[in-house]
Amino acid sequence: MIALARVRVDAEKCVGHGRCYVLAPEVFEEDERGHCIVIEEDVSEALADEARKGERNCPEGAIRLER
Ligand code: SF4
Asked: Which atom of ligand 1 lies closest to the CA of 21?
């Protein structure tokens, strides 16, 4: 797999709304407190689209895709 992007979550900003792992369950999951964990850090094109859904919908701006 050729990685298109790297997914980062700022744990200091994440408060556990859960939108990311509901919208993109192949990229994100929840920890025991409902905060976000990144399952796939290096994502292909298809998963990058999923990750961007999480990025766009995180109210805290905690998710970042790096190229
Ligand atoms: S949507 Fe944002 S604040 Fe909510 S769990 Fe995901 S990263 Fe954390």
From this structure: 6
Residue range 16-29, pLDDT digits in tens: 999 999 999 999 99
- Ligand 1 centroid – CA 17 distance (Å): 5
- Looking at ligand 1, which residue's alpha carbon is closest to its atom 3? 14
What DSSP line would sit under 1-49, residue for residue?
----EEEEE-TTT-----HHHHH-TTTEEE-TTS-EEES-SEE-HHHHH
Q: Hey, what CATH topology would domain 5-66 get?
A: Alpha-Beta Plaits (3.30.70)
pTM above 0.90, yes or no: yes
